[in-house]
Amino acid sequence: MPVIEITPRFLRFPYGESGHFLLLREGLDLARTADFAQFCGDNAEWRIERSAQGDLSIEMPTKGFVGAQNALLNYQLVAWSLRGGEGLVFDSSAGFTLPSGAMRSPDGAWVHSRRIEALSEKEKTEFLPVVPDFVVEIRSLTDDRGPLETKMREWRMAGVRLSILIDPKERTLSVFRPDVPEQTLTGPEALQLDCSPELPGFTLDAGAIFAIHSASL
């Protein structure tokens, strides 16, 4: 008997600017991990996150110079990692499932090799069920700072050893570590940040990212 393939039916609805759409398969329950993963796969061009409460955060593809800032950030991390960082660098396309049930995708992340090796082959093909050792977020021109700060505290509560919020608009760095008051650096202190001991030998060149922001204005 021939196999009949049925094309999934999608609900297609506008999001954000005119001409942009999200696809939702009929019958999906986005509270279920597998269904949420399917939704993200069907809308791979979007950056989708889920909070611990199940609320979705959806961002359109990166605009303008933001992509250049993200590329420079991850270039710095990859260059350091290749010099012996003993781990893997992930860009904003990677999703991490936190103990709270939230699924987050930072602009840049690093995970130590021993924690990657502890994952099963199946886990490596899903949103990674691991808390990164290091994460970085970059504030874009359209981002409100408040929600970003809340997200950084969520990373810290999840157990991230070092989290950094780069704010090119204000030319500041906000640094988050477990059991340590958060610190905001300004002026010359915000241009170069030694990320030891969490990332031995890695210095974040935020000044170069600030320069891209200035060029975009």
Q: Percent of residues in beta strands?
A: 25-35%
Global outline:
globular
Order of helices and strands: EEHEEHEEEEHEHEEEEEH
Number of helices: 5
Placed side by side, the strands forming the largest sheet appear as 5-8-9-10-11-12
Helix percent band: 25-40%
Evaluate the radius of gyration: 19 Å
Biggest sheet details: 6 strands, mixed
What is the terminal-to-terminal distance? 63 Å
Number of strands: 14
Poorly predicted regions: none
Structural class label: alpha+beta
What does the average pLDDT come to?
A: 87
Relevant terms:
single chain; 217 residues; alpha+beta; two-stranded antiparallel ribbon; 5 helices
Short description:
This protein is an alpha+beta fold. The chain has helices spanning 33-42, 66-82, 113-117, 145-158, 206-216, and strands spanning 10-14, 21-25, 47-50, 56-59, 87-91, 96-97, 103-104, 108-112, 134-138, 162-167, 172-177, 180-185, 192-194, 203-205.
